[in-house]
Amino acid sequence: MFVQILDFIGTLAFAISGIRLASAKHFDLFGAYVVxxxxxxxxxxxxxxxLSQPPFWMTNAFYLICTAFGLVxxxxxxxxxxxxxxxxxxxxxxxxxxxxxxxxxxTLAAGFPFWTAIIxxxxxxxxxxxxxxxxINEVPLIFRKEIYALACVVGGVAYFVCYKMGLGNxxxxxxxxxxxxxxxxxxxxxxxxxxxxxxxx
Length: 201
Known about the structure:
By secondary structure, the protein is mostly helical. The protein has helices at 2-24, 29-50, 62-76, 78-83, 85-109, 114-135, 149-164, 169-189.
């Protein structure tokens, strides 16, 4: 139930972030919905396929409905959401954190080791954003200097430490999500980024 709640909230947050960017690019309603849906389910779909499980959204129509609700939300508050860049950052960061937690939880429940869970948590959190950026013709965030996927790794390590200390899944998940959010906010605020790879002149 804890994982499902996080999954639903993360879906809505990621759907809104994707639809918001599609709206800024002047996509039509269907195009914006597709971008929002892909942002919401892309990472989790890749995770489930790698775990040899049926993709989560194929057995529960809520994710499709949730994305539609996100579309209505963006239409209703378009003037505020599209003009304010910080709203995209907020929803994207929330989705990133929650999906990182659900990816870790689901991988551990499937019996895989912790290092696999951290990778799958990162894939779940950052994967949908890659599809979104490709669809709107932007360089994916994980390929830029900005800390994005690495924030999921930080959260995954925090989850591992909490788990080894004897904390339950709920507490470990909440701390993991908090670390993802904190890492992302601090990286953006203080302009912390990884060094770029440059070819020699």
